[in-house]
C-alpha cells in the first residue's frame, strides 16, 4: 500500500488506520482461517458470515473516506486521499475474490471429509472382518492410536482458535484505543471552538456598545448643529428683519 498521506486531516487519518487494520485482519487471519477450515459445516458458515460482515463494514468505511476527499483543504491532500481510496477499493475487491475462493476450498475439504467418513461407515463387511481376523491386538492398538491422534488434533485446533481469538482481542483493544484518541482530539477541537465562540461573543458585544455610543454622539452632534443653525437664523434673519421693519420708530 502507498504511504499514509500526511497532508490530510486527523479524522481521515484515523479512518485510514482503521480500514488498514481491518483489511490486514481479513488478509492475514480471517480468510486463511476460513480456507483451512475442515468442518463442521456450521463453523464454516459462521466464519464465512463473519468475513462477509467485515467486508461490508470496510466497504462502508471506504465510502465514508471517499466522502471526506472533497472536504480536504489542499489539492495535494485531496489527491493523496483519492489515491488511497482507490487502493482500498482494489484491495477490497481482491479480498472478496479471495473470500469466495476460501469458501470453495473449505467446502471441498468438508465434502471430501464427509465422503471419506461415509465410505468408512458404509464400507464392505468382508474387509472389516478381515481386519478383525488379522489380529485383535493390532486393531485395538490402531483404534487407540487413532483416538489419541484425534484428541491431539482437537486440542491443537482448540489452542489455535484460542490464539486467534486472543489476536482478535488485541486488535479490538487497538481499535478502542484509536477511537479513544479520536474522541479526545474531537473534544480538544470542541473546546477550542467554544473558546473561539466566547471571544467572538465578547467582541460582538463590544462592537454593539461602540455602535450605540457612536449613534448617540451622531445624534448629539446633529442636535447641536440644528441649534447653531437656528441661532444663526435668529441673529441674521429675524432680528435684522425686525430692525428693518421698525426703523421708523427711531424718529418717534
UniProtKB/TrEMBL annotation:
GO MF, any single term: SNAP receptor activity
Top-level taxon of origin: Eukaryota
Localization in the cell: Endoplasmic reticulum membrane
Bilayer topology: Single-pass type IV membrane protein
Keyword set, alphabetical order: Coiled coil, Endoplasmic reticulum, ER-Golgi transport, Membrane, Protein transport, Transmembrane, Transmembrane helix, Transport
All residue ranges annotated as the Sec20 C-terminal domain in the record: 147-237
Primary site of residence: endoplasmic reticulum
GO process terms (BP): protein transport; retrograde vesicle-mediated transport, Golgi to endoplasmic reticulum
GO terms under cellular component: endoplasmic reticulum membrane; Golgi apparatus; SNARE complex
Segments crossing the lipid bilayer: 216-233
Recorded family membership: Belongs to the SEC20 family.
PANTHER family linked to this entry: BNIP1-RELATED, VESICLE TRANSPORT PROTEIN SEC20
Protein name as it appears in the record: Sec20 C-terminal domain-containing protein
Native source species: Pisolithus tinctorius Marx 270
Amino acid at each position: 500500500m502507498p504511504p499514509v498521506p500526511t497532508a490530510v486531516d486527523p479524522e481521515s487519518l484515523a479512518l485510514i488506520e482503521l480500514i488498514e487494520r481491518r483489511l490486514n485482519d481479513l488478509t492475514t487471519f480471517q480468510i486463511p482461517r476460513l480456507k483451512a477450515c475442515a468442518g463442521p459445516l456450521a463453523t464454516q458458515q459462521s466464519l464465512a458470515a463473519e468475513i462477509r460482515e467485515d467486508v461490508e463494514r470496510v466497504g462502508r468505511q471506504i465510502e465514508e473516506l471517499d466522502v471526506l476527499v472533497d472536504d480536504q483543504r489542499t489539492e495535494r491532500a485531496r489527491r493523496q486521499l483519492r489515491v488511497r481510496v482507490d487502493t482500498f477499493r482494489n484491495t477490497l475487491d481482491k479480498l472478496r475474490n479471495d473470500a469466495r475462493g476460501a469458501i470453495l476450498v473449505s467446502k471441498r475439504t468438508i465434502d471430501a471429509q464427509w465422503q471419506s467418513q461415509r465410505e468408512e461407515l458404509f464400507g464392505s463387511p468382508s474387509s472389516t472382518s478381515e481386519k478383525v481376523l488379522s489380529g485383535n491386538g493390532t486393531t485395538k492398538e490402531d483404534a487407540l492410536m487413532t483416538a489419541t491422534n484425534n484428541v491431539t488434533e482437537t486440542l491443537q485446533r482448540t489452542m489455535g482458535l484460542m490464539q486467534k481469538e486472543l489476536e482478535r482481542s488485541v486488535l479490538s483493544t487497538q481499535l478502542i484505543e484509536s477511537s479513544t484518541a479520536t474522541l479526545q482530539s474531537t473534544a480538544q477541537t470542541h473546546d477550542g471552538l467554544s473558546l473561539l465562540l466566547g471571544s467572538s461573543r465578547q467582541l460582538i458585544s463590544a462592537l454593539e456598545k461602540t455602535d450605540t455610543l457612536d449613534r448617540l454622539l451622531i445624534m448629539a452632534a446633529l442636535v447641536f448643529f440644528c441649534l447653531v443653525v437656528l441661532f444663526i437664523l435668529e441673529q441674521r434673519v429675524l432680528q435684522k428683519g425686525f430692525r428693518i421693519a421698525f426703523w421708523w420708530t427711531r424718529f418717534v
